[in-house]
Amino acid sequence: MESITKNRQSLDTLRAMVARAYGPDAVPDGETWVEELGHGWFNVVYKLTLADGRQVALKIAPPPDVEVMTYEHRAMRTELEALRLVSAHTGVPVPTVDYADLDHDLVDVDYFFMPYVAADNLGVVRDELGTSDLERYKAALGAANRELNTILGPAFGPITAPTYPTWRAAFTAMFDGVLDDGRRRGVELGRPYDEIRAVLTAHEHLLDEATEPRYVEWDLWDGNALVRDGEIVCIIDHERAFFGDPLIEVGFAGLLTSAFGDATAFARGYGRGPLTGPEEIRRQLYTLHLALIMTIETVYRGHTDPGQYDWARERVDEVMTALTRGRPTA
User: Where is the Aminoglycoside phosphotransferase domain positioned along the sequence (predicted)?
Assistant: First the structure.
């Protein structure tokens, strides 16, 4: 996926980064040792083959002069903390960090190295799988997500600085940040911004049902799961994590709207039963928040294909209609 947030580097800079992380003897010759992995939507990621044959992955934060959305600030530091938490408190397979550089003296952004995992991206191969195999993977994602949600935080909000005493306060700040991002760049949402904000105001009291600040992965979809021999061997891309309400997890987005896919297998693996009435409204607020992000981010990332923008704006309209009529989407 192409995006102006991808911070590509020259071969000379990549060699210097390898030397710093693994030592000068690890620096390979020639040009064929570098391969960009193109599945990501935000950071640039390289697969590198070192001089001794080891394969590693290098992830580099966006250029400092490229404006990102509010929740994406310091995203790589969020991911590093998420990897630490998940490794320390769960058995969910995530990458280990070989080396992280946050000093900005070699390149002017954060970056880190991790071992390369030789496996298939579920988001890429899912169309080649049979229904039973895909449902098994979806259920496994649900089970992994449930385990991630067992991590408790000290408060709600970003995992690097959880400062909100309630989930209502944290989610309201997140929601307002997205709307502010859209206003700043003049993104057309199909509905007035004040009307969208009023829908949150009308229902925000229901957010108080979430009383425990739990680790939320928030981006555990097919494209962030690596699979091999019928098993999920690694979960990648943790830069969206925060402490909040597990019902906001993207795997639950399909519970009330088919536009986000069928969530049945994910919910079964998670052990999630039917939603209550108040939970349905909370889930709709979370879907609205996600649809707003997916609409607005197309401007920040410089998309030239209108496909995502058009699709996401339709979701904004659908969820707004459902919330104002008091019923789930179809």
Answer: 34-281
